[in-house]
Specification:
With 343 residues, this protein is an all-alpha fold. Helix 1 runs antiparallel to helix 8. The radius of gyration is 42 Å and the shape is rod-shaped.
């Protein structure tokens, strides 16, 4: 009898004890039954039968008279206990509404049902009953099979096998995608929908506004942080630029030849430098204004459309990038990570 899932609620303590005692009884019965089946199989082998008769004639005779002669009846006694366990488990599952329909239990616990059939091949399924009972004891916290040496060996090789199988499946899938990407170039030449075109129409375009907003937000943040971090250098550059421009201007040169021309020239240089720096400073302060935000979004919108407009050459470049990216992923998947874990 299996225990309910956690979402079905906890049983009273006495019910848990009854289930525990019954599970331990079933484990004992199954182990004894499997031991009997194993010994009887060895007993039927002529060389082992002869060796046992020579080594322990009393045991050999007693087993042959009392056990071997009544083997079917003894096995049916074990089957009766196992069948009772199935019926009781089925009744408990119906009472607790463990499954969606009342007749689901024998299909879920098929190994228990088939193991009750007293035939050679079906008797081996009783081993699975021990595994399910051990799982139930593990879930109750009575044992911890994760600390068992045998479980460690099983977990190691199970992990290796599953990783190798998943890696092979992933490599085959990525190779198939690469073939589809290469085939999309020929589709583009024939006028069919290429992969990049389908990606644009099915993936990018439905999210156009979100992408534009994200691009504009990142541009604003980048420009604002760059300008604020380099404000002093930018002001010095503008002042030097204004001074150099005035120094090279023919009109300013003629102005300096006049009386007081140098003072006027310097005053004009200072005024223009101050105006230019104020203009730049106001521009930096206005980078977070709604007007600048709208301007950046319009620029991102127009640039976005230009970026999506492709021809045969750009389509091939895009698809080659996809192929190379998939090849890098295949190389990563092909690495046997389990060798590093179990080195």
């Amino acid at each position: 009898m299996s225990h309910p899932s956690p979402e079905q609620g906890a049983r009273p303590l006495w019910q848990d004890k009854v289930h525990l005692v019954w599970d331990l009884l079933i484990i004992t019965v199954v182990i004894a039954n499997l031991a009997l089946l194993l010994f009887d199989s060895l007993f039927l082998m002529p060389p082992l039968n002869t060796a046992l008769e020579a080594a322990a004639p009393g045991l050999h005779g007693a087993y042959e008279r009392h056990v071997r002669a009544n083997f079917i009846a003894i096995d049916l006694a074990f089957v009766a206990v196992l069948l009772l366990d199935v019926l009781l488990g089925w009744i408990v599952a119906i009472i607790e509404r463990r499954y969606h329909r009342w007749f689901f239990y024998p299909f879920v616990h098929w190994y228990d049902v088939l193991g009750c059939i007293p035939l050679g091949g079906f008797r081996l399924l009783r081993v699975l009953r021990i595994i399910s009972l051990l799982y139930r004891l593990q879930r109750l916290g009575l044992i911890d099979i994760r600390r068992w040496w045998l479980y460690g060996v099983y977990a190691k090789y199970y992990d290796i096998v599953m990783e190798e199988l998943s890696d092979r499946a992933a490599l085959r899938l990525l190779g198939s995608v690469q073939d589809q990407v290469r085939g999309s170039v020929q589709d583009q030449v024939r006028g069919s929908d290429s992969l990049s075109k389908r990606l644009t129409e099915d993936v990018v375009m439905p999210r156009k506004q979100q992408l534009i907003h994200e691009i504009s937000r990142r541009l604003e943040t980048m420009v604002d942080s760059a300008c604020r971090a380099n404000r002093d250098d930018l002001m010095r550059y503008i002042s030097a630029l204004v001074g150099r421009t005035l120094a090279e201007s023919p009109e300013i040169k003629r102005l300096r030849r006049l009386p007081l021309g140098n003072q006027v020239s310097r005053a004009l240089d200072d005024s223009l430098s101050d105006i230019a720096c104020r203009l730049v400073n106001e521009t930096i302060e206005g980078l977070r204004s709604p007007e600048f935000n709208q301007l950046v979004e319009r620029l991102a919108d127009s640039s976005f459309d230009a970026w999506l407009r492709v021809d045969a050459h750009t389509d091939r470049v895009t698809e080659q990038v996809l192929i190379d990216m998939l090849e890098v992923i295949k190389g990563q998947v092909a690495q046997q990570q389990w060798k590093q874990r179990y080195a």
